[in-house]
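Chapter summary example.
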Amino acid sequence: MVKLYKLDAVSTYDRHIRSADWIKPAQTRSPMIAPISYLWSLVLSEDSATAATPHLDLLFAGSVFCDLVFAGVPLPEPGAEVFADAFMLTPGGTANRAVAASRLGASTALLSQLGDDALGSRVDDILSAEPELDLTWLRRVPGFQSPVSVSLTGQHERSFITYEEDALPLDWPEDGPTVGATHVGVQAELPAWVRRIRAEGTVVFGGVGWDSSGEWSPSVLRRLREIDVFVPNDLEAMRYTQTDSAEDAARALGEYVDLAVVTRGARGVVAFERATGTLTEVDTIVVDTIDPTGAGDVFVASLMATERFGWPLDVRLRLACLCASLSVRTLGGAASAPRPAEILRFLDAEAPVGDWSMIRRWAEAAADVSAASVQSPSPELHHSTHHAGPIHTPEENL
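The structure predicted for these 398 residues follows.
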């Protein structure tokens, strides 16, 4: 029997995720109504007077950054000053995936912490405007500096400057809502709470970052047996499996996980299903690229958010590739994640090759629902008098 891979995402940038008892619902949240994803879980069953067990489609855990994105700017020489063509302040890190999934209608929770500083307050305000994103477990910690990352995006290259303090360990409460799926980094031992909820039925997706040490430890492959779905990029996959192609790497990874999904940047994605022995390839949608930051996060979140639809894998991959492509047309990771209405507009305007009928029907229905629940626009984009032109030959979209 083919196992169904549910949904979700945490971040491959996760650090210090260990069990602890400090996580409690935040005492104060930004002014807003309670998230839809939380309210619906409290609805009484028609057959009894007891409340239904709260459930979340997706749980994202890890560091949430305040991303400061500067576009159309080269890395300055020592002592020099350069001016950007555009600027945006937007949530980043794990928030990229959480926002992307919630915008596709998945009930999504964020397990993380921010400081009580001005940057943390601004990020909190932006995230609070996402109607399907539950921030109950996003804690504001007095004295903690909210992680911040500066992105300098030029015509053909990107550079980053990041500051992140050691954070308190994260833990999902035993009496918390059930979770359809979550996503963890597999570079280190899985947190105890992840193993616990997997034993309770949560599907675990895994990712991995680039190994700057060059070791590509076999322990990572052994750890894959503790998860259900693995989503690396092609370079990571080939290094760990010692293969020469993304296709061979996906097949090799199928020895460890039920589903291996290898992203190939502008060349799309290849996936191997162990139960059927099927290799599926899907091309990406080519667009003019402004900022590829977070495109991989949008891909993973979109793939996971579609599990509940019961779609064939190739359709899910096609939508995930489209969402990733749409996200690179504007600045920011979380800010650029598409909603169903944007997906529908693109399909109407561009008529991409292939059968998009299933995705179109979903987008038409979902656009009406999401339009009624969106509380505010994405973070404001600021332009200078100089226009930032598109990157026509992107090196990486996923």
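To summarize the output: The first helix runs from residue 36 to 39.
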